Amino acid sequence: DRAGTGGEPPASEPEVLPPPPGLAGDCQQSYNSMFQALANCWRNGRSNAQGLEDCGLLGRDNSGTWFREDANWDLFQWLEDRDGCGGFCASVCMKRLYLFAL
User: Fold this and answer.
1) pLDDT tens digits, residue range 45-100?
2) Is the pLDDT of residue 41 over 70?
3) What is the DSSP string of the chain?
4) CB burial string 14-31: b at 16+ within 10 A, e below
5) How far is CA 68 from CA 1, 26, 44, 95, in A?
């Protein structure tokens, strides 16, 4: 069961939050990009992927950037492993998802 999704890919992507300035903005931009990569992975043949690691090269955002090319992917993986998702996917109202299903 995909963490936070009830086992089904989202019908549509949640609203992408505009990034704030500075480090927080960099992290929000990274989350948005990796969320797009996971959604695209589900749409493009890996609907059973539990997280980005299951996507392989299908884990690309709308601009074609592979999630492992994101400067913060290892930070997000570490955050999920240690502390859920560091607040980026904690809000059910925002329909945010875990990226690595850890």
Assistant:
1) 999 888 888 999 999 999 999 999 999 988 888 887 776 665 555 444 445 566 66
2) yes
3) --TTTTTS--SSPPPPPPPPSHHHHHHHHHHHHHHHHHHHHHHTT-TT--SGGGTGGG-B-TT--BGGGSTTHHHHHHHHHHHTTTTSS--TTTT---SS--
4) eeeeeeeeeeeebbbbbb
5) 23, 15, 18, 23
